[in-house]
Amino acid sequence: MRVLGLIGTLPDATAPAGPPRALALLRLLADAGHEVQLVVGEPLGGDRRILADAAAAAIGGPVTAAAGTERVGPGTEALRWALPVRLAAEYVTPLARTARALAPSVDLVFSFDDPAHGAASAVSGDVPTLMDLVHIRGVTDDGDWARTSRARWTIQPHRSWERRVLGRGFGVIAPSTQTRARMDRLYYRRPVIVPTPVARPAVAGADTPTDDTFTVGWYGDTRDPGDREGLARLAAELWPLVGDGAARLLLADAARPAELAAAGALPGAEAIHPDGGIAELTARCTIAIRPLWRAGGDGAATLTLMAAGLPVVGTPQAFEGIDVHPGMEGLIADTPSRLAIALRKLAEDPASTRQIAGQGQQHVLRHHAPEAVTPILEGAIEKAITRFGDYRAGRVPTPIDPAGAKRQIEETLKHARAAGAHLR
Fold first, then answer.
1. Alpha carbons 352 and 270: distance in angstroms, whole number
2. Confidence band, pLDDT 50/70/90 cuts, at residue 356
3. Which of 4, 151, 261, 286 is the most exposed place for a label (fewest CB within 10 A)?
4. Whole-angstrom Cα distance, residue 274 to residue 252?
5. Which residues form a coiled coil (predicted)?
6. Max Cα separation, the chain?
């Protein structure tokens, strides 16, 4: 099968944590024998060429820029609130034009971010389409973006690509139950959950903790606003509750910004450059900390640390997309003070530290290893292709008419009442 991947902004395949979710999913398809290619909605000259070559190696197929990206902006985010203009722009961006040109020669279009979803929806009537709803824009910090019907009706028109593709019944996947719940409450449709694939890294032996010292490792990418905020709160609120002469903090940032030097000046803290990958960090740490405060992620960094054999202490947002049992595969706390208590708890109990680390690593191997994720992804693709055949045969109504939407809502409420469930 020939798979055309679309993405507005090229992810960094050189980060120590390994290929990002979009590239990892395409790699699964390449390893399964499919022919994959990725088209990016931004220029790939200069320094971006290095990232493009790394992405091509990661997915096992070519990575190219959409024709015309040097002259026309790559996405439609700037037109987000000018709805009629933005809807028209979905069909004329370089990414959409390239998708239309390549659609006759591919068997599936796979999109990974908002600009790519707009381009994919523009060709969804001509080729089976699969959308990966990761890092959705507009999610509130707690992840609850559809508290009221008014919020849903405000958001829906501006995310028209999912509505169009869901209305036709094609494939939409999500990295977590949390993202699926948001989409269900927004469109009354449940995407298929495809976990984020994570390869187990080669890890050197970690330092053995002593009775009077422990080492905490933070890994992130401060180009991401969530990681940037998490690092700032770690330095200002969390570490002062933990840091003393017996505690050390290692900070590893994929972006290597100058701002990391300020956090590295904390008592017991040291900023490092993880050129050797996550293995370099895990070889020097006994505990990993993930203080994220924004919802909507895929848990890739947390999964990588767990796969490397580190016990992870983090917020609920850090574990989004990872179906762990608190206290077994990781420790979850929702405030800086509780995170500090969890760190101290592990530091004082090396046996529990090793147990949580082992259980977390086994969880990743069972649920997020490539061999575990590939069948789920293949099933989502088969469903999208089947539904596309139904659409072309006229068995899928499109678009969703108001009467049909009202009927679906009434049926959902009817089933919920029959089951005794409470809906907001």
1. 26
2. very high
3. 261
4. 6
5. none
6. 70
